[in-house]
Fold:
Amino acid sequence: MHLVIDGYNYINRINASSVQRGASMDLLRRDFLERCARYKKARSARITVVFDAYDTSSPGRHSENVRGIEVVYSREGETADDVIIGWIRKRPAGLIVVSSDRAIIDEAKARGVAFLTPVKLAEMMAAPVAFEAKDEEDYEEGPRPKKGNPRKLPKKVRKAVKAIDKL
Structure:
């Protein structure tokens, strides 16, 4: 299982009030990476956090390891969204994307890659053992009639629920 998180998207969604009050982005980033490290230790999942380095003069992507969390910075002229969408298109097994950006979510849906919103991940990090996937009754059927067992979730949904349950 590989959890890929859009770093600044997560920080801005979860810590919106801190960002508005002018809190140091570096401090928020370190706090977020610390929470990721604790979650990784509890769940033993591979975690990669992607940050924008869009306005820097770095010619290439670079990464570092922070307490077992792989941190990737995009290259000049590239956004974290571009990096994540590229990984989604490669569609490695066990990939779960965390972002609220519409382009990333649409690409994940189109490729059958599981995704979470930053708010859902924050809930899971707060109480990782208490998270449970939705029951089958929570899912609605699409507009077209389906063939097969009507009580069984669609294969893409079952796969996504199974991947999220492993978190």
